[in-house]
Amino acid sequence: MQAEKHIRLSQLNDKIQQVVQQAFSSVSFWVIADVTSHTYRAAKNYHSFDLVEKDTHSNNIIAKISGKAWGMGSTSITRFEAITGQPFTNNIQVLVNISVQFHPVYGLQINLHDIDPSFTLGKLEQQRQATLQKLVDENPGFITKRGEVYDTRNKQLPLNKVIQRVAVITSATSAGGEDFRHTLANNPYGYQFYLDNFFTIVQGENNADLLVQKLIDIFQANQPYDAVVIIRGGGAQTDFLLFDNYQVGKAIAKFPVPVITGIGHQKNETIADMMAHTATKTPTQAAEFIISHNKQFEDTLLLLQKHIVIKSQQLFSLQWQQLAALQSGIVNNTRDAIADYKDSLTSLNQAVIHSSRSIVFNQKTELINLSSQLSALPRMILQDKKNELSNAIHHIKVFNTQLLKNQATHLGHYSSLIKLMSPDNILKKGFAIVKARQAVTSNPADILPGDSIEVILSSTEIQATVTSKAPYDGRDFNI
Fold this sequence. Notes:
CATH class of the domain at 143-296: Alpha Beta
CATH topology of the domain at 143-296: Rossmann fold
Order of helices and strands: HEEEHEEHEEHEHEHEHEHEHHEEEE
Family: Belongs to the XseA family.
Strand content: 15-25%
CATH architecture of the domain at 143-296: 3-Layer(aba) Sandwich
Structural class: alpha/beta
Largest sheet: 5 strands, mixed, barrel
Helix content: 40-55%
EC number: 3.1.11.6
GO molecular function, one term: exodeoxyribonuclease VII activity
Keywords: Cytoplasm, Exonuclease, Hydrolase, Nuclease
InterPro entries: Exonuc_VII_L, Exonuc_VII_lsu_C, OB-fold_nuc-bd_dom
Radius of gyration: 64 Å
Shape: elongated
Distance between the termini: 179 Å
């Protein structure tokens, strides 16, 4: 049997290397791919990684190749991190300039020469703009856009005149949180603050649900918070992706307590900043904003106090002047009135003296006349009364007989009337007396059908039973 023709593996790899070099040695490519399996050896300034492409529908990997970066390639990665604030690490999409190489031992690889930071920044910004548009489209009740400004229900909430009770969302180990608390505690005005900490992880987009849950916890705590402060220190741009999350932005925009952010991002404004009532750059600035807000209220009170004091002094001075003028007027008017009344009293005194003398003289004259009359008048009155008595005696004698005769006539008349009106005489004329229930009655209502009655005539008493009863118009007795 003839031996088959064969080559060694090194020979095969040499052939592959020759083909790859002939095809790719003089060209480089700008490639869009995601970074995975990244490692970095600082001692050698050497990066190794895989570039992959994922299916847009299933997220499955449809292409993969190993890569490395060293020398100028590693320098370009360092520049990329400085520009974007984004570490070169797993799960980021990049635009890289690469060349293709084949090594007999390490196989097919790409060598990274350059990386475009603008592509990564643009990708992040596209995602952020898409999230903002989604917030506006899906939440018209509490998020609107006016020009380049986003107006939210949280922004429309009025801040209390004094911010004192604050709910703080931050990491338990955050230096920014310590800066915030230290700034508030050491404010130069001696303001007192009451802080409730709600600790959570404040970096990494995957932890967005934890931050939203803390907002829910604050709402359910049912405490009268003046504000909610979200705090984070500085970091890489990807560390802030949590604050560009849709659910976080939505929760802040509709939260019923004013939200103040101090996320520590000096370069850009996050979606959380845009949705919040007030956005500050750092935790320290967030604390300074609260202190300044309270100071404005204190300054307003002090200014109002100053105005009240000045106005009071002005009113007091004006009233004092008016009182002085009124006092002067009262003194002058009193003097004038006393002088006028003194003259009037003098005139009145003289008139009283003259009038008194005249009255005394007239009364004396009247008393003399009355005395004369009293001495003569009793005799005259006595004589008149004596004459009246004589006349009365005469009249009594003359009219006594006539009066007795007249009274006798009147008595005879009344006696005749009484006899005519006596029951016996009336019964003789055909009338009758009716008794019901042993009592005389003239009221038909007292007698009912079936009752026993007594009918008394002139010389007869009749016992009867009422069989019927009907109204009567009295026509038999009409004259």
